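COURSE: Structural Biology Practicum
ASSIGNMENT: Worksheet 4, Part C
STUDENT ID: 0417
INSTRUCTIONS: Below are two proteins. For each, the amino acid sequence is given first, followed by its structure token string. Answer the questions at the end about the second protein only.

PROTEIN I
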Amino acid sequence: MNCSISGEIPEEPVVSKNSGLLFEKRLIERHISDYGKCPVTGEPLSIDDMVPIKTGKIVKPRQAASIPGMLGMFQNEWDVLVLSNFALEQQLHTARQELSHALYQHDAACRVIARLKKERDEARSLLAQAERQMPLSSTPVSSNAAVSGNGKRVNEDEELGPDGKKIRQGISATVISELTDCNAALSQQRKKRQIPPTLVPVEALESYTQISSHPLHKTSKPGIISLDIHHEKDVIATGGLDTNAVIFDRSSGEILSTLSGHSKKVTSVKFVARDDLFLTGSADKTVRVWQQSDDGNYNCRHILKDHTAEVQAVTVHATNNFFVTTSLDNTWCFYELASGLCLTQVTEASETEGYTSAAFHPDGLILGTGTSEALVKIWDVKSQKNVARFDGHVGPVTAISFSENGYFLATAAHDGVKLWDLRKLKNFRTFSPYDSETPTNSVEFDHSGSYLAIAGSDLRVYQVASVKSEWNCIKTIPDLSGTGKATCLKFGPDAKYLAVGSMDRNLRIFGVPGEDGSMEA
């Protein structure tokens, strides 16, 4: 019989009462003193549980006086080696079992991922097929209009002028009266306007940090280049290089709807504060009017194809009944929202540059546009006349924002941000936060007109002051996308947060840490 540890015939054999296994006495006693359990079964074991077995005496040869010491030393080393080898064998067996289990889990995970990808592709295919088969008869159009096969509203009695351009009906006296009444009402309200007590104070804004990040767009074409916020619903819309617009609920952290239909990047997105309407402009030269249905999804009501080049900006009038689009084709269009009808398309024959940005004045009778040739043009909406122009920028004017008080205009371009006094029609301050190789991509006043935010290689927030007072930078936020290019930003209600889009696919929310109830990414 052999020892269960060494595999050799024991000199002093002992047997375990619990397992009945045979061991060399000195080996098992050393193992029990080290581990306190059976080396084979792993059960608790003590020296009292070992029963010695009587065997015949083994006669050993007579040895020299120094040899026994050497043999004893060798014997001890051998005992340690045998115990160590036994422990390694047990560890190897355990590792093999764990590896086998891990390989099984990995194989199962791969099968699940493959199945989910297949289901996702099938769902996308069914969705695309459903969109192609969606009936267009539900699109509301006027009595003298029809819908073409691609969903665009086309006037049957539409006429072309001598130059081959469409003849527009123009902005009627009724529309001008509506715009004037809105202007009078808003101007009267603005005189009594006070900064809301719920506005975030400067001290809180100085502590802004990223509180959430949400991957909304595709990884194949990352980049968020337009953004808007519905303040009443606290819903954020983004337009991306992946040709999609995404409607995102900030409070729940969930995507409400993904709007597909454009064939190129979505350059502008705008909410309309009535009837759950939503507008998108794209580099595919079209503008789409969407409306939310009862199931929460957005259906395309109109596809507008009045421009012949990339649509760069969409801005909604304060009445929420009209909107303007600007394009690189050197025109801007004034639309009636309900019908999707282009009332007028304005161009300057002497100019060749395209329009890259646009915004309505808060009172609604003035339109500001930026051009690809670094000009800022101010238009009288009623007469569609260019009443003022500002120069001094370098590069295309990427963004325009009017202050709520109606006195200030902020414009962004490659060389930075310029502030204009609309009462005296002159530039009174210039911010050049970045180097000559870094353009400023976005500029935005908050709704109260108390703060101004700039986006480029980082984010900067300034406290709004008067023409003669200093506008202090109260917060600088680094670009966390890793792209070095923040493309668009918007203040949330009462400046409680700042929504930022960059050249990755993530929407980032910056606010006061610990005071935000939205879903943490």
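PROTEIN II
(use this one for the questions)
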Amino acid sequence: MWWLHFLVVNFKMRLMNCCSTPYLLRFLLIVFFIIASASISEPNQFCDAGIGYGESTCGIPSSASSKLLIKGGTVVNAQHQEIADVYVEDGIIVAVKPNIRVGDDVTVLDATGKFVMPGGIDPHTHLDFEFMGTETVDDFFSGQAAALAGGTTMHIDFVIPVDGSLTAGFEAYEKKAKKSCMDYGFHMAITKWDETVSKEMELMVKEKGINSFKFFMAYKGALMINDDLLLEGFKKCKSLGALAMVHAENGDAVYEGQKRMIELGITGPEGHALSRPAVLEGEATARAIRLASFVNNPLYVVHVMSIDAMEEIAKARKEGQRVIGEPVVSGLVLDESWLWHPDFKTAARYVMSPPIRKRGHDKALQGALSTGVLQLVGTDHCAFNSTQKAFGIDDFRKIPNGVNGIEERMHLVWNTMVESGQISVTDYVRLTSTECARIFNVYPRKGAILAGSDADIIILNPNASFEITAKSHHSRLDANVYEGKKGKGKVEVTIAGGRIVWQNNELKVAPGTGRYIKMPPFSYLYDGIDKIDAAYLSSLQAPVNRAKSAS
């Protein structure tokens, strides 16, 4: 707050000037007045409503220390690991080295035998999202609180334009995010194209801190765009140094598939999977990749759910194209059999797009992660409860698409990938945090345990166990698609912005304490793009100078 900065600066000045006792008393009276005024003039609307977890319902607990020391843990970054202490002050990592000594005013956490890692960054979420005639049950407080309990300390959500207006969409999401309790960033969806949208994209990048734009190749009649718009969007992204993202499914073919299922009398959740098979995801992925190659812009494919899409990404990357593939945790650990469950309520929970695939796709996506074909793991957390899912009880096309995952991701990736020996501990940090920070250009502020980085830290006990259940999760959902899953590797402590927000299975967070993180353009994915363009131009051998024939 402004008044806190004022107090610190002025108090230091008074001490430096060795002010007299009367002057100091007057200053302290001013301090008291400012604090009292601030308390009156800046009420916490969420505090008044009693919204929050633990002691911090009305803000940061008074006992919270701005100084932390994490002792004796194995500090893990994406490139290396070492046994060291981590000292934190005022939300920033100050030092990472062995045997740090501190005073009695420092809170000490013993991490012996445990891993100290960067907090997770979820690149793909939908909080407070209006979709398919309803709105997700998790907003920017409940969704983020769930994330923190699961070891994720930052996420990037998708702003949806309002009647095509990026500015109106951004302003709407700014309001939604006022109740946030952890750091977050924004992607921006593009749902139409004209000169106004083009100019607004510039505004978003240059002034609002957005460096990525998403194009839906599915949801015909709602969010879907055509190839002409996709090309225009790709070109604009390239000029701005922004990253183009695609939801890759052939929307026209999906529409036909849905009509086919209804004609066959298949109206239940299984019709969702049958109407949008993996071949349609593969086709759209290939098309987006080829158009991006034509423009020469980096491409990010969200929620890669199938072997078909993954193989297109693998082929493009092998040829040197800059394509990022993001699987989501549901695609890594679940299969489509749930959609055939005889109980509609159970089956409908698993409806998302692209659909969760048959057994075999999950293992292939895990393998692609372990070999570097796919680069990071998101969730596509988009939470609709059983009542909302029931909108489509007679027609699967009306079931709101989405599953949970923001709280479960870190545990499931550890158990599925690290415990199985498919990836190393450093790989885990890269896949769940560091690579996301690099792609969206906030590294090393985020995604690292380094001096100068934000103190977003987790302590993971590899020997502790977890069990996922709707009874104990922090989402507002009434069910959990990972219900009953157990495993090893538990996040025991989450530190966000230097504050301990999760410890001893207790969450201590308050709405309004999160920060919007601006993400600058021209990430590492743009390195050398200009040279590729120059090589292309020099290879054309055109235009050819031809003598004009006499007529």
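ANSWER KEY EXCERPT:
Q1: Residues 1-43, 56-63 have pLDDT under 50 and may be disordered.
Q2: The longest strand covers residues 457-467.
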